[in-house]
């Protein structure tokens, strides 16, 4: 998308909000991408190439796959990085250098929000910690994203989504039961601890901005992957707290609802998601088993949960006798919830996904092939806009430093000294 064709951002909800993004990988960038989608000016700070290290957000090199350039060759921009960094401007600044620290403080003085995911205490070594920056800019919302938070016995540990999924209990309830082939703990297919933390961080920042606008005071937001992972156990966490019994892995079945799981049809799998007793009656009718809801063991969901081991095999036998599409059509007609299990090619070709415009093409300096997954946020008055493609490393360094009032020759000298790139 060329500058001349950039959409007017005057109707965007976060227009005028300045975000200084000192985060990398996923949780922090996911948060700042959401803020950017809503109109915030996000300046992503990355490390310059140095000592053989290519510099930049680590995810720039997390491939293949990579974006194909204009000639169809790998561009060096990893798909992983592209998925979490649109609508941002990139500057490359060495914060380990005294001058680099001065530049970050200058940016923090102008910022409304700062997001960082350094290890606890790391930024204090550079004079860029929350206490120091809030003293300089009391209106700043300073959001730290770490594995375990700023306090507690694990505060100094590095945090990784995979480890937190295990430590936080998610893998204990994800995967097939031990008694079946392939049984055992499984991680979720995407980094949900990171992604949920990014979304919770976004909510917290918006709440802090509302408080700031009312009082003039910024604050510190302390986000931890482990806290988020424990919170997102949701009904399963509540199940344990109410009973003292740890939920077990149940594969594709639901802990609290029956039948709510994957079934095998004659030619593939489908999901059945019966959420109440009337839907169960309809499901049994289309299976040709109208007597089941009359059985006291199956008449209510609570009874079906208690007798799932008897009920589910009877349902599964009927489902297995017909093709998947037969059941999907029948369930749609009867308004019984469920659906197909699509791979990603099928997802992005789905008519509903296409109608909702969940894929957005964007011009990119290296490629005319960039497509990104759209934001799911649909706002009638302040819609999301796709203004800037994921930036190249340091693409906007000169632009941003010029906005701070620095002259071109000064910027050139800093680049020669390795302070910036």
Description:
The chain is α/β, with parallel strands linked by helices and 421 residues long. It has two domains: 3-231 and 356-416, Crotonobetainyl-coa:carnitine coa-transferase, domain 1 (Rossmann fold, 3-Layer(aba) Sandwich), CATH 3.40.50; 260-343, formyl-coa transferase, domain 3. The chain has 16 helices and 13 strands. The protein has helices at 27-37, 79-82, 98-110, 130-136, 161-167, 192-215, 225-231, 234-243, 277-287, 301-306, 308-319, 324-334, 344-349, 351-355, 397-403, 408-416; strands spanning 18-22, 41-46, 66-68, 74-78, 88-92, 113-116, 141-146, 219-224, 260-265, 268-273, 338-340, 359-361, 371-373. A six-stranded parallel beta sheet has the order 5-2-1-6-7-8, sandwiched between helices. A three-stranded antiparallel beta sheet has the order 9-10-11, covered by helices on one side. It has a two-stranded antiparallel sheet with strand order 3-4. A hairpin with a 5-residue loop joins β3 (66-68) and β4. The model is unreliable at 1-6 (pLDDT under 50).
């Amino acid at each position: 998308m060329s500058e001349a064709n950039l959409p007017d951002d005057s109707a965007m909800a976060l227009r005028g909000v300045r975000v200084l993004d000192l985060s990398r990988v996923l949780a922090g960038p996911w948060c700042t991408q959401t803020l950017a989608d809503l109109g915030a000016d996000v300046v992503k700070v990355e490390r310059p190439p140095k000592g053989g290290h290519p510099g930049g957000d680590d995810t720039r090199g997390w491939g293949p796959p990579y974006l194909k350039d204009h000639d169809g060759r790998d561009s060096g921009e990893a798909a992983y990085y592209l998925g979490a960094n649109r609508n941002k401007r990139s500057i490359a600044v060495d914060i380990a250098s005294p001058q680099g620290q001065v530049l970050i403080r200058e940016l923090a003085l102008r910022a409304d929000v700062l997001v960082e995911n350094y290890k606890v205490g790391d930024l204090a070594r550079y004079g860029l910690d929350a206490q120091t920056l809030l003293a300089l800019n009391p209106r700043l919302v300073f959001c730290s994203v770490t594995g375990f938070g700023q306090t507690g016995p694990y505060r100094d540990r590095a945090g990784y989504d995979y480890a937190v999924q295990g430590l936080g209990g998610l893998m204990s309830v994800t995967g097939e039961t031990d008694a079946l082939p392939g049984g055992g703990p499984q991680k979720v297919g995407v980094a949900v601890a990171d992604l949920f933390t990014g979304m919770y961080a976004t909510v917290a920042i918006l709440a802090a901005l509302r408080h700031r606008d009312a009082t003039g005071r910024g604050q510190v937001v302390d986000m931890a992957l482990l806290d988020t992972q424990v919170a997102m156990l949701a009904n399963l966490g509540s199940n344990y707290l109410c009973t003292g019994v740890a939920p077990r892995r149940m594969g594709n079945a639901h802990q609290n609802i029956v039948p709510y799981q994957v079934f095998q049809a004659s030619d593939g799998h489908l999901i059945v998601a019966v959420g109440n007793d009337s839907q169960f009656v309809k499901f049994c009718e289309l299976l040709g088993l109208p007597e089941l809801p009359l059985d006291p063991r199956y008449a209510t969901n609570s009874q079906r949960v208690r007798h799932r081991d008897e009920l589910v095999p009877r349902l599964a036998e009927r489902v297995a006798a017909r093709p998947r599409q037969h059941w999907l059509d029948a369930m749609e007609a009867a308004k019984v919830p469920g659906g197909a299990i699509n791979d990603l090619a099928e997802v992005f070709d789905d008519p509903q996904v296409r109608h909702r415009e969940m894929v957005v093409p964007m011009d990119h300096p290296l490629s005319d092939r960039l497509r990104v997954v759209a934001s799911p946020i649909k706002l009638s008055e302040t819609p999301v806009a796709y203004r800037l493609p994921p930036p190249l490393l340091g693409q906007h360094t000169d632009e941003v430093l010029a906005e701070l009032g620095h002259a071109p020759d000064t910027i050139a000298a800093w680049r020669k000294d390795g302070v910036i790139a």
